[in-house]
Specification:
Layout: H1 6-21, E1 35-39, E2 43-44, H2 52-67, E3 73-75, H3 78-83, H4 97-106, E4 111-120, E5 123-132, E6 137-146, H5 149-171, H6 197-200, H7 203-213, E7 218-221, E8 224-227, H8 237-246, H9 260-264, E9 279-281, E10 290-295, E11 300-305, E12 312-313, E13 317-319
Parallel strand pairs: 1-3, 1-4, 2-4, 9-12
Antiparallel strand pairs: 4-5, 5-6, 7-8, 8-13, 9-10, 10-11
Length: 322
C-alpha cells in the first residue's frame, strides 16, 4: 500500500476543503494534522554541570508541549531524533543552521529549535534559535539568562514561549491563550520610553522604517531591516550580541545579531551601509567557542573565536512586519 508524506496529506486536505466550500465565505478549519517540532540538544559552551544542558533541553520540550494543543504541535522525542542521524554523528554536533535544518528534514519536522548555553558577563545565557525546515528560513531567536542554573531555569519558560510565538505566527495558528501567572511571568514592568513589540509591529512604524532608510539609519532588503551603521568600534562576539540586544534604531526593541545565512544575502553590502571594517559578526557557530563572521569585501564567511575583537564589528537585523 502506497503512503504519502504527512505534508502532502495536509496540503491535500486543505485543497479538498477549499473545493468543497466552492469559494464560500465560511473558512475551513485547519487540517487535524499537527505540525512537528524537533528540539535539538542544547549545546553547552559554559562551565555548567555536565547534565545541565540535557535537563534544560527537556524543559524546552516540555514548555513547547505546554504552549500548544495536541492537534497543533507534536514535539519529537530525543530518541526519534537520534535514530534519524547519519552513522557517526550526534545531536550535539549540530551548531550551524544548515545542520539544524538537515536534521529537522530527516525526521520530517516542520520546525527545528536549537540553542547554546554560554557563560557571559557572570551570567549563564541560553540563546534559542528557530528555523523553518522546508524553506531553511531563520525565524528568530530569544535569550534567557540567570546568575546560576536555578535562575536560568526560572527564566527559560518565558523565553521558549516567546520564540515559539514566531512559529505560531509563521504557521498561521490562532493566538495562544494568555499565560497563567507562573513564576517566570510574575514581574512588575519597569517604566519604559521605548515602544512595545505590538507598537513596534504596527504598519505606521514599518512605513517609518522605509522613511528612515533615507537617513541611512536602517535599510530594508527582502523583508529584513538592517542597521546601516556598524558598531563604530571593534567588538568580540559577546559584545556584538549585547550591542544588538541594546540597539533601538528606528524605535524598535527587537534587533538581534544576524545569522550567517542572512548576512550572505547582503553579498558585498550596497552603498547604503556605512562600515568601518570588512568583518561583521553573526550569531551562527560552526563549533563550540567560535562563530562565523561575514567578510563584506569578499562576500564570504570567516571563522573566529568568541573573544576575537580586532577588525570585527556588528550590524543588527530584525524582520520587517514583526
Amino acid at each position: 500500500m502506497r503512503t504519502f508524506p504527512r505534508t502532502v496529506v495536509a496540503a491535500g486536505a486543505r485543497l479538498m476543503c477549499a473545493a468543497l466550500l466552492g469559494g464560500g465565505a465560511v473558512p475551513c478549519a485547519r487540517a487535524a494534522v499537527p505540525l512537528r517540532l524537533a528540539v535539538l540538544e542544547l549545546r553547552d559552551s559554559s562551565d555548567a554541570r555536565p547534565a545541565a544542558a540535557a535537563y534544560l533541553t527537556d524543559l524546552v520540550r516540555g514548555r513547547a508541549s505546554h504552549d500548544f494543543a495536541p492537534d497543533e504541535l507534536h514535539v519529537l522525542t530525543r530518541e526519534s531524533l537520534e535514530l534519524a542521524l547519519p552513522a557517526g554523528r550526534t545531536l550535539l554536533e549540530c551548531a550551524s543552521g544548515s545542520c539544524e535544518v538537515e536534521i529537522g528534514r530527516r525526521v520530517g519536522a516542520d520546525y527545528v529549535l536549537s540553542g547554546e548555553l554560554l557563560r557571559f558577563g557572570g551570567e549563564l545565557r541560553l540563546l534559542l534559535k528557530l528555523h523553518h525546515c522546508a524553506s531553511a528560513t531563520f525565524l528568530g531567536s530569544e535569550p534567557a539568562a540567570g546568575r546560576d542554573l536555578k535562575a536560568l531555569e526560572q527564566a527559560l519558560p518565558s523565553a521558549v514561549s516567546r520564540v515559539l510565538q514566531r512559529l505560531r505566527t509563521h504557521a498561521g495558528l490562532a493566538p495562544a491563550e494568555p499565560p497563567s501567572l507562573a513564576a517566570d511571568t510574575l514581574r512588575v514592568p519597569a517604566p519604559r520610553t521605548e515602544p512595545s513589540r505590538a507598537e513596534a509591529a504596527s504598519p505606521a512604524r514599518e512605513a517609518r522604517a522605509v522613511a528612515l532608510a533615507a537617513d541611512t539609519n536602517v535599510y530594508l532588503l527582502d523583508e529584513l531591516l538592517w542597521t546601516t551603521h556598524d558598531s563604530g568600534r571593534d567588538l568580540d562576539w559577546y559584545e556584538a550580541w549585547r550591542w544588538c540586544e541594546r540597539c533601538r534604531a528606528g524605535g524598535w526593541p527587537d534587533w538581534r545579531l544576524p545569522e550567517i545565512e542572512e548576512l550572505a544575502t547582503l553579498g558585498v553590502p550596497a552603498r547604503e551601509f556605512r562600515l568601518g571594517t570588512r568583518l561583521v559578526w553573526s550569531v551562527s557557530m560552526p563549533r563550540a567557542g567560535q562563530a562565523y563572521l561575514w567578510d563584506t569585501l569578499r562576500g564570504a564567511r570567516a571563522t573566529a573565536a568568541f573573544g576575537t575583537r580586532r577588525g570585527a564589528r556588528v550590524i543588527c537585523v530584525r524582520r520587517a512586519g514583526e
